[in-house]
Amino acid sequence: MVKLVCSLAFALIILSATIKCHSSFSPFLHAKNAGQPSKYGNKAISERCFCELEGSVNDCECNVAYVDSLNNNKIFPRITSLLTKNYFRFYKVHLFKKCPFWDDNEGKCSLKFCAVEECPADSLPDGLKHSNDTLKSSNRIFFGPLPKEEPCIPSKEDILGSINETISKAASESIATWIEYDAKTSSFCVVDEEPPEDQIYVDLIVNPERYTGYKGPDAHKIWKAIYEENCFKPSLEYSLFTDTRNMGDMCFEKRVFYRAVSGLHASINIHLSLKYLHSAAEVPGVLSDGINSLGNWGPNLEEFHRRFDPDRTNGHGPQWLRNLYFLYLLQLRALAKAAPFLENVDYYTGNAEEDYETKEAVRDILNIVKDFEYHFNESTMFSGGQQAVKLKEEFRLHFLNVSRIMDCVGCQKCRLWGKLQTQGLGTALKILFSGDFDSPDPTVFDLRSMRRTHFKLTRNEVVALFNALGRLSDSIQALEMFRKLAVS
């Protein structure tokens, strides 16, 4: 009964917001209106695109204004600075996997701005050249002084009563298989497991996320596949404008999944509008071989308008922006939950001074995140016996599928950032729902209070987790700039 009331309440919120945003809205408004000049003119964009960015985020005990203040004043300047550190700017990735769903040879982007500049091995920080990718925070956590070691000469009785700790080769191989299976069944994202020679390091600062000119049917095919493979959505069919009006009919778990994917989509669209390619004129003397020669990139209010104005999105654009805020809160909660682990990672690159600064900067951000009082509450999800267990596995497998689709993106730079951000979200979901980071009291951020102390995250997962927050933070900051442009 409670779930029914909540669903009805959520549906009423969405309906009233839709009417408020688009007073002439009709459920039969077709895509033919998309791209037409708005009858309100540029001065009303701020009233239409941002009409839902007030009040509650929904599904979280937090309002939009509070998130804006937290992000723009505290998180954004800190995460922007952190991501320039060597530990977070180099990302290891396989950009040449075959698309597992269709032949993607025809959809390859040949524009020079789609290309990624690989990071030469000799320019990598020393600590990344021969590093073990798996991090175990607990390796360096001690809850008291180590006992003094004393020499021990075992007696005959000790030897006779001792446990034989030798393990056969076959048993060792079986245990390794079990560990690998456990790791895979807790993962929400496909991990590049190819040989090292098939993977490259990419400098994310040299290869920023921005509009490259990649568009048209091939680009739309990616999002179409994501929403079609994702059965957790408000409507049964995919259209150019993903329906948001009946989200209240979905159970909480499915609504969380849809809003996370929609929020990621919205964030990427904001990035493309913020760093839009206005012209392809090359600037001499920039990066090698002219691969990433700078064109004229900058904010494009018309592009933002096209992607989010309710007149051009069948009334859904403003709700997509609200989903961005929801995803931001989801990501913050994951960081808070994993804080005991993340505070004790060494962030090693071989430069002792910078490694120390990086660790302190991470702790500074985590302290702000832990002090935040309106975190998303995942503890109510997937409770209810065998059906809940089945739904949780569906949830995980659907997002695995979303991450696989990233290998079908025809633009190499878009593929890079798609893989990075889906891995960042996948890592957040792993932290929230795998059970490895659960604590009896979710408000206590202390490794001692958790059920286990041997958590595992790879370096790439940590890099992706923080970069994903950086991208969301950048999007929310950009909304403030688009607001000002719209009324200027």
Quick one: overall form?
Answer: globular
> In terms of per-residue confidence, which ranges show pLDDT below 50 for 5 or more consecutive residues?
1-36, 136-169, 171-183, 282-293
Radius of gyration (CA) equals: 24 Å
Would you tell me the overall average pLDDT?
76
Give the percentage of residues in beta strands: under 5%
Profile the largest sheet.
2 strands, antiparallel
Number of helices: 16
| Class from helix and strand fractions | mainly alpha
Q: What's the end-to-end separation, in Å?
A: 48 Å
What's the number of extended β-strand segments? Answer: 6
User: What oligomeric assembly is this protein in?
Assistant: single chain
Helical fraction: 40-55%
Output the helix-strand order.
Answer: HHHHEHEHHEHHEEHHHHHHEH
Strands of the biggest beta sheet: in what spatial order? 1-3
Fold blueprint:
Layout: H1 2-21, H2 45-49, H3 64-82, H4 86-89, E1 90-93, H5 126-129, E2 134-135, H6 156-161, H7 169-185, E3 200-203, H8 217-229, H9 252-274, E4 276-279, E5 296-298, H10 301-308, H11 317-337, H12 339-342, H13 352-371, H14 386-405, H15 412-433, E6 457-458, H16 459-487
Antiparallel strand pairs: 1-3, 2-6, 4-5
Describe the 3D structure.
It contains 16 helices and 6 strands. The chain has helices at 2-21, 45-49, 64-82, 86-89, 126-129, 156-161, 169-185, 217-229, 252-274, 301-308, 317-337, 339-342, 352-371, 386-405, 412-433, 459-487, and strands at residues 90-93, 134-135, 200-203, 276-279, 296-298, 457-458. The strands form 3 sheets. A two-stranded antiparallel sheet has the order 1-3. Helix 11 packs across helix 15. The longest helix has 29 residues, at 459-487.
